[in-house]
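Weekly sync, protein design subgroup
Attendees: M.S., D.O., the rotation student, P.L. (late)

Item 1: inverse folding check
M.S. brought a backbone from last month's batch and wanted to see whether the design step gives back something sensible before we order anything. D.O. pointed out we never logged the input encoding, so this time it goes straight into the notes. Structure tokens as presented (358 positions):
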């Protein structure tokens, strides 16, 4: 897996779903969902159903950092979302992180998000080092889309209020709009994730095309030499919208999980059970067979598997993900770690299918 770049190791292709990754996608989509011809009906209805105060905060806090909504990305990146334990954490953990950040961090994230707008235009700029209102107004103006410029200036010059309003928006959006929908969509997102993990892709562009039905955006393609890891994330309401977060060396590519569930299906031999081929593909690798042999002695957590195999953690994660997607191992999360055990029923089923074919 990976895309070779001259002079650089292959890119890491990973697949993940988490509350904070999906929340970032959802709030960005709801912000944009003003045209029912371009966005899924749920998104349009969700935006219209928001309390007017929340709609105003949405347009203010997402509407000052350019068309790519860089401020919401800064909130995501501040959480270090790819640290392994973060992927299994819930909304309350993310909210506690935001509440724990000092106000000056929010002002810094505003400045960083607007600097990214300038960089996209090929312009070098520095944020004001003082509290001069006119200087901040001039600095912020290029990033304004829907927000009122003067209101944003007021917030930047009062970072305590900036923090309070940002945290309240995230809390209210989750509690009043998205929490029930996330729980409803989570099984489908996990299903698409398992299917994506069980497929081998020759490169980032091919993976994105197969998962999303779109070509990799040119600005992403040009940035790949500066990217070390690409994380594909399923999104339930993405529809035909292309969504990504480029924060080198990280790149997040979202894909429509409803489309992926329909498209990413292995070709099946008419003589074999529909469940047989994914299992055989998962078993057709020496490393994965060694993992199964190790698990015969009992449940192990991922780091124990890494230590016994003597290969990289990312490689072990991919092998375990493929075994999980094929239902050959069961996974039990506990205290921020994942414990793996053999699914004996599934192995017996595969053996019986092979015997029937023979």
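Designed sequence read out in the meeting:
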């Amino acid at each position: 897996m990976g895309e070779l770049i001259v002079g650089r190791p292959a890119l890491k292709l990973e697949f993940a779903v988490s509350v904070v990754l999906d929340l970032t996608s959802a709030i960005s989509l709801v912000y944009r969902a003003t045209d029912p011809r371009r966005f899924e009906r749920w998104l349009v209805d969700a935006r219209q159903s928001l309390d007017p105060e929340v709609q105003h905060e949405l347009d203010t806090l997402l509407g000052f950092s350019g068309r790519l909504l860089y401020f919401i990305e800064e909130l995501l990146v501040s959480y270090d979302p790819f640290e392994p334990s973060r992927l299994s954490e819930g909304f309350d953990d993310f909210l506690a992180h935001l509440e724990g950040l000092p106000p000056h961090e929010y002002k810094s994230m505003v400045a960083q998000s607007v600097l990214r707008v300038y960089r996209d235009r090929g312009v070098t700029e520095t944020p004001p080092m003082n509290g001069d209102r006119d200087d901040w107004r001039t600095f912020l103006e290029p990033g304004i889309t829907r927000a009122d410029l003067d209101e944003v200036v007021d917030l930047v010059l009062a970072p305590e209020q900036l923090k309070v309003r940002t945290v309240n928006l995230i809390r209210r959006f989750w509690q009043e709009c998205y929490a029930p929908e996330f729980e409803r969509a989570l099984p489908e997102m996990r299903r698409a994730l398992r299917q994506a993990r069980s497929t081998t892709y020759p490169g980032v562009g091919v993976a994105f095309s197969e998962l999303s039905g779109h070509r990799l955006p040119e600005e992403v393609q040009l940035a790949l030499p500066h990217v070390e890891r690409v994380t594909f994330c399923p999104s339930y309401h993405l529809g035909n919208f292309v969504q990504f977060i480029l924060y080198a060396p990280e790149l997040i590519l979202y894909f429509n999980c409803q489309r992926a569930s329909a498209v990413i299906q292995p070709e099946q031999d008419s003589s074999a059970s529909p469940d047989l081929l994914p299992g055989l593909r998962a078993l057709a690798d020496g490393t994965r067979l060694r993992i199964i042999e190790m698990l015969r002695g009992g449940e192990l957590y991922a780091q124990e598997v890494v230590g016994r195999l003597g290969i990289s953690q990312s490689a072990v994660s991919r092998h375990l993900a493929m075994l999980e997607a094929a239902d050959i191992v069961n996974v039990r999360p506990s205290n921020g770690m994942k414990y793996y055990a053999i699914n004996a029923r599934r192995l017996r089923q595969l053996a019986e299918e092979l015997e029937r074919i023979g």
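Discussion: The CA atoms of residues 1 and 183 lie 31 Å apart. The two ends are 33 Å apart (CA to CA).
Action: P.L. to compare against the previous round before Friday.
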